[in-house]
Amino acid sequence: MGNKPVDYVIRVLDSPFAVAAADWNALLALQPQAGPFMRHEYLAALHESGSATPATGWTPRFLTLWRGTQLQAACALYLKDHSYGEYVFDWAWANAYEQHGLAYYPKALAAVPFTPVPGARLLARDAAARAALVQALLGWCSNEKLSSLHLLFGADEDVAACADAGLMQRQTVQFHWQNAAPAPGGDTGYRDFEAFLASLSHDKRKKIRQERRKVAEAGVSFRWARGRDIGTADWDLFYRCYARTYREHGNPPYLTRDFFRRMADTLPEHWLLFVAERAGRPIATSLIAVDDPLAWTLGTFDAKTRDKVAYGRYWGALERVDCLHFEACYYQPLQWCIAQGYQRFEGGAQGEHKMARALMPVATTSAHWLAHPAFADAVERFLAREGEGVANYLEHLEQRTPFRQG
């Protein structure tokens, strides 16, 4: 292949099991933005459970760089024959290809299936290995005559390496909550949920209290469990809620019950479950992913430099209660984050309504390469216009701060 990385052996693997979990996770632990979703156990569970497989349109082609027996760089890569489960939308590009008699699919995707959470995508021991990995990806996609390569929700280091290699960049907007900065010599973050509410403007504070009151007056209470304290019955309940809510919106759930069984077995420490109950019966659940850096073998990075982060992931309900979604998916997790000293809660893709709950807009970046020169030129012009629109949108949102002024 052109620009072949020097001194590396390139291996393209058709399964996450072709690389040892210890090797993969050790490399992941070196990344400043590691997170639980690129862990070998998570990717393997997606494959083994039937959630992300060739049958569902996700054909694994993990690209790895080796020096002797040591893994130097790696990327979870998938061949896709559709654009579902990605959250960075390129359907218009696919339609344009089809209208011109060209095949857009299969395409190559460097991402975590069904998981729009920013983090490391190009796992590498150093900047040179990361740059070599990008060149290997481009070379392999070219040799396979694929239409395109897309890296979604990349870490800052990934985005920079892709930009150096000439890939186009695209920004989308998510909404994240940030704990209060520590006062000099003081405790980290808000003292409690009431202190957080006190930081908001009067109308936002009033609205949140009204919404929480509606749930409480409906007789709903909450309990939570983390890790191995989440029993099989709770996991079964969660999946029943999750699957029902998906089907109510006319879609089958992306993830199987077996996927969550594997999470309970292999990554229990990364899951937090909230259960809403009324009259002694469970009626809704909210599943949160959590990342505590102290649980990692951190390589060269000090745990003190990494945030403790929670991620809003899945929810479902068996009964309708006014404002229950807000309580289960925002207020209960934020209250828990404050009590546990977590610095950030990422609320996921889309949703301006999250700003009223103090989740603020954050730009996330993806990188794209298209093999066809004319289409690449057209997409580059489109992304320039879209980028201006996103920048204006972010500026507009930032002017609508929910926080008290002065």
Automatic annotation (TrEMBL):
TM region(s), chain numbering: none
Source taxon at top rank: Bacteria
Pfam family for this entry, one: FemAB_like
SUPFAM superfamilies per record: Acyl-CoA N-acyltransferases (Nat)
Gene3D superfamilies: 3.40.630.30
InterPro entries in UniProt: Acyl_CoA_acyltransferase (IPR016181), FemAB-like (IPR007434)
PANTHER family: ACYL-COA
Name the record gives this protein: GNAT family N-acetyltransferase
